[in-house]
Each structure stands twice: as C-alpha cells, then as structure tokens.
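Lab meeting, action items carried over

1. Structure of the two-component assembly. Owner: GW. Status: complete.
Input record:
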Amino acid sequence: MALGQVILFIVDLLALFSIYLIINLGLNLQQGITGIPNFGLVLAVAGGAYITASLSTRLAIYLLNVHTNLDPIINNVSVLQLVNPILRSSPWLSTGLLALFLIIGGASGALMGLISSAPAVRLREDYLAITLLAFGEILNVVGTGYDPLIGGPPGTSLPDIFGWAGQYRFYWATLIMFLVAVIIFVYIERLVRTPFGRVLRAIRDNENTARSLGKDITRYRMSSILIGSILCGIAGALWALYSGAVTPSYDRFDYTFLPWLMILLGGIGSNIGTVVGTLVFVTLDELIDYFKYAFAPFLPFNVVWLNYLLLGLLTIFILIYRPEGIVREKWTSVPAAPPPAGEAKPG
Amino acid sequence: MATMLSVKEVAASFGKLRALDGVTLSVGEGSVTLLIGPNGSGKTTLVNVITGFQRPDGGHVFYGEREITGWSPQRVYRVGITRTFQVPSLFGKLTTIQNLLVADKTNPGESFLKSHIRRLWINHERETVEKASRILQTLGLAEQSDKPVSVLSGGQMKLTELGRALMSDAKLYLLDEPISGVNPTLALEIFARIVSLRKQFGVTFLIIEHRLDIALKYVDYVNVMASGKLIAAGTPTQVVSDSKVIEAYLAR
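Predicted assembly:
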C-alpha cells in the first residue's frame, strides 16, 4: 500500500471504529453492567439516524432562512442545493447545526429506548430479550412504508455539515466522530465507577437481592436502557451525517449482532474491553474488505463470504477459548475511608 | 414486651400446595426469636411473605402497628426490615466490601443525576466504606475486603451476607439459616454477636435455623412450624419438651 492508501485505510477504520465504539459502550452499559440483554439496539440506532435525517433538512431551511416551496423530503436534492452552499461557507454555523442534530439523535434514541423499555423492563431477563428483539424490527417497516419520514426505500440526504472542510471533509468528519466517541468513553467509564454504577452491577449480579436491599430495579434498568439508547441514537445520527444520506436499511445484523459480537470479543462488563473488542473486530473486518479480492483466484467461493467467515470463526473462537473475552471485568476500588478522628495529619 | 412483628392468619400457596395454612405468630421487640420446623414446613415462604417477595393469599402482616401486607420488597427494606437468603445471594462480581456498600440506604451517589457531582456523595461514600470496614473487621473478613466474593468460601459468603444485612441499620432482621455451612466456632461467634447487637442497639431478630445445638442457647423464644402451620411456641425449654414438636421435628 502506498502511504496515501494507508492513511485512507486508517481514516476509514477510525470512522467505523468511532461509530461502533459509541454503540458498543451503550450496549455494554446495558448488557455488561446492568444485565439487560438488549437485542433491539438497532431500534435506537435507526431511530437516531432516521429522525435526525427527517428533521435535518427541515430544520436547516428554517434556521438558515432559506425560502423555498419545495418539500424537504420529496424534493430533497433541490432543497439541499440551496442549503449546502450556505453551510459550506460557514464552519461555525455547520458545527452549531451538528451539535443540534446530535442532540436530536440522542433524544430520538432516548425516545426509542423509552418506547421499547417501558413495557419490557418489568419482564424477566429472557422475555425482555425477546421483546426487545421484536421491537428492533419496527422502524425499518415504518421507514420503508411511510415516505414523509425519510422518503421511503430510496432514502433521503442530509445537509452537509462537514462541507466546509472541502476535500478534507472525511478527515474532519472522522476526527469529530472520534472525539465524540472519546468523550462518551470517558463519561461512561466515570459513570460506572460511581455508587450509581455499583447498583447497576449489583442488579446484574442478583436482581432479587438488589430488590431486598431496597433498590428500585425498574428505575435503574430504565436509566440504563435510556443512557444506552441515547448513545445509540447519537451514533445513528453521526453515521447519517457522515455518510450524508440514509435509507431504511439499518438492520439487525449491522446494529445488533455485530455490537454483541464485539463486546463479547472484548470482554463483557469492561469498557476497556469494549474498546479492544471494537478495535480488533473493526480492524479485521476492514482488512478483509481491503484485501479479499487478492484471494479471489485461490478460493473456490465468492470472496464476499470472507467477512461472514470471520464472524463465524470469531464467535467460535470466543466461545471455546475466551468466553470471558479478551479483557476481564476489573474490580473497581472503593474510596478510602476517612482517617479516624483525632489522628494527626502527617507533616 | 411490645410486639415488633405480628403475622395473622397468613395463607400462601404454590398451585395446589398450601405452603402457609393460616399462620399466626408474633415477634417481641428486642427479642431473638427462632423459627424452626422440618424442611418444607413453610418457614422461608413465611419470610418471603413478610418481606414482600411473595403475595399472601390471605391474612395480615403488621410491623409494629403498621400493616405491611403486600408491600414491595423495596418498601419493606426502607421501613426497617432486612432479610438474608438461605442460599448465599451475593453480588458475584463485586468485591466483599462493595457487597456491603450496596446495602446503604441513603447514598446520594446512587441517584443517576447526583452521581455526576462527586462532591455530593464522596463524603457519604467514605463514611459508608468506614462502616463497612468495621463490620468486616468484626466478622473476621477484613482480609477478604477487596477480593471478589466469588473466591470466598461458603461460610465466608454467609458472613458477608450477614454483614450486608447489618449495613442497613434495620430494626428487625430476618435471617434465613445464618450459620449453615459455617464452622462451629464461628457459628457460636455469630450467635454471640447477634445477642450483643440486640443488647447494644435493641434490634430484633427472627432466625430460621436447623442447628439447634448452637441456636437454642442464644434465643429467647421459639416458634415451631410444620406443614404450613404453627404447631408450638414458647421458650426453648418449653418447646423442646413439647410432644408435638418432638414428633414433627426433633424425633427420628
């Protein structure tokens, strides 16, 4: 690979890594820390992507004072031709809109989390998993069948809030996504070390005992699903803004199965493990994507299956050799007790 | 002696099985009361009903003057009743001391919003850690404090559970077989500790235990159940000489 290609490869990898890291941290908070088997992640990710996409062009017209009689979804391309030049000329305006869209993404994720969890959190773990799995399918049906949302099967484009970076658009977009992922990592890592995080882990380890110790487990589970769904929503919105368009094709494979595989690989319950699992998986997947055609002459099957073979092999590898993942959950320390009263301070 | 807990005509069933068939008993304030009976006589079910883990089909439960029938486990805990489980029910991936810390009732850091501002909870947390360390010290678990509970022995798990119950500052403790799997010396110590706690803080204990050799020496009052009914009640000496008790539980 030439240097240019290596850089492109890494930037691509970083973008995918950042998106998945955000989703996976959300999943790890739910499954790894709180013990909620959320098989419906895709609902929050797609919710963040679709609702943000649906509102983005409409909001841009309104906020940028663009006067047009065209419909922002049906005549999407023509409307964006009016909006994008304004955004290209103003990085600050674009970044302001980005912040707004991320908030919308997070709120949409939260809404989806609320919808799916409200009836579900009272259920026992196994029923909860099935209920969430079923909820995950709803949004694609709506996205495909109801055109005003994101224009039906052809999808819709979003205002290009990274347009100001010109030919460096993808570098800047990737950098911003990476920064968001890092901020979220630090936030979640701090959160699980508070007494709040300790109660979540207690509920995961023993629901009944947690109840006998006065914990309102329904509320804690709701909080966990909400935070996780907000993260998924933010990731969905970011991915839509990065790619510039959405179609109703956010499926369970990409946004539920893969995140599960990554957190199992990294070590469930550990945020560091989540980072490692995400990085290892995304890297392997991208490497295969990049090099698979070189293998075409030697393989008796189509090389597109190589990615799926990786998944299968990884799953088997994890289950047989490292069921606990690459990184084990760490025992977090407790703050030191205050020194006994009356004891002289040293010095 | 005022009544701490009274159970009136409580019935509960699993399908066709009547686990509790109109049980009436009371526990005096500041007493150490034992609840014995053959396996399957309904002792644990009674504790489950009192602590809100199972809804009774009928009857009433009073905590002092207050009726608590059908309350949720959270509410029962908050009002001052703490229970332990027959099978050690620890938080397996937390350390021993963290298991105790979870039992704290008033830690502001357990609220999602407040957990973001460390200053709001760190002092409370430090005090709780100190209290938990003291309890672990008295139970001889100081060295296990920062180990995950999954590496503890069965007896140590029992002790951790007792320690966790003590964190709650409850007025009434319902202990389900606190010394099963604990060696005799330690078992004696646990009961001695229970009695001294009662003296110190005036708290009340209702204890389910099969090891009468140890337990009887320390308790004031004994309730005996068989087949979902209370068949006898009285002081230890009265109960062990009761013919119904001998037939149902002590003989063979």
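2. GW to write a short summary for the group page. Key points so far: Chain B touches chain A through 45 residues (CB under 8 Å). Residues 1-80+170-185+195-252 of chain B form a domain with the Rossmann fold fold (CATH 3.40.50.300).
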